[in-house]
Amino acid sequence: MVPIYDVSDKTTQKRVREPAVAGMFYPENPRQLIEMIDEYLDAAQKVIHEPIGGLVAPHAGYVYSGPVAAWSFKQVAFDPYDVVVVIAPSHFEYFHGASIYSGDFYATPLGEIPVARALSEEIAALSPHIFLGEEGHHHLDGNRGEHALEVELPFLQRVLGDFVLIPIVMGEQTWPVAEALGSALATVLKGQNALIVASSDLSHYYPYDTAYAIDKQFMEYFNQFAYRELLEAVALREVEACGAGPIVATMHACHLMGYTHSKAVRYATSGDVPYGEKAQVVGYMAGVIFQ
Fold first, then answer.
1. For residue 102, what is the domain's CATH number?
2. CA distance 260 to 291
């Protein structure tokens, strides 16, 4: 078995991806962050009791999507995963393929998470669509940085404790890239006690009732485990998900590893929280992939 974390040159200064949206998307103060996450987790329920290989969680500001995200992470609370993959879309930077962070740690206000470098290298070696780099991970001009991966991490730290991370950002969300990534993950993670998390919101900026109707169709594809059809429906603009590629890559990997069921366990929109308004909303789904 390949070691899940290995920095061969101990004298090399570690590279850390520092938080980009702490204090904006979620509290920067660790105590306040823990209190907010625990409040959301306490309100969520565990409804899937079979072995879980994958999750889908939204990635907006916690005051909007946190209550839904908590339903995803509640399903794996205190489960003994050793390695966690988080796959996110790229909102600010376009690049080909899928980028696995080439540094050593991802940081949040709750601490640094070590990157599983040896496993990451194995995954990247399996396809020209996958590479080690900082694309999608580094801070851009004006200190902007991708939020979709980062916001999942404090929840994972709270429910899992210690784990190592394979952080992936997809610059392309086509089937060839999603298929290659899912296949590579399944090949390398076989035999590892691993969890894959896809980061995605659903429909964007429709009136409240319209969003519910569009996202209901999306969840029908998801609940039927029809991920190829789901990606085609997104391409045809019949349904929406900014992280459709991460969702499909996660489902494909889980399928290859023997997880053949999927279920949306919670849905709401930004208009369902006290701060939201219903003229233009964003849809959020908590999804689980299980045996």
1. 3.40.830.10
2. 6
Task: Please say whether the beta carbons of 20 and 90 come within 8 A.
Answer: no
Characterize the bridge pairing of strands 261-269 and 105-108: unpaired
d(CA 132, CA 245): 18
How many Cβ atoms from other residues are within 10 Å of residue 50's Cβ? Answer: 11
What tens-digit pLDDT sequence spans the chain (291 residues)? 444 444 444 446 899 999 999 999 999 999 999 999 999 999 999 999 999 999 999 999 999 999 999 999 999 998 989 999 999 999 989 999 999 999 999 999 999 999 999 999 999 999 999 999 999 999 887 668 999 999 999 999 999 999 999 999 999 999 999 999 999 999 999 989 999 999 999 999 999 999 999 999 999 999 999 999 999 999 999 999 999 999 999 999 999 999 999 999 999 999 999 988 999 999 999 999 999
**What is residue 165's three-state secondary structure?**
strand
Residue at 110 is within a domain: yes
10 Å CB burial of residue 178 (0-12, 13-18, 19+) is buried
Asked, for residue 96, whether it belongs to a domain, the answer is yes
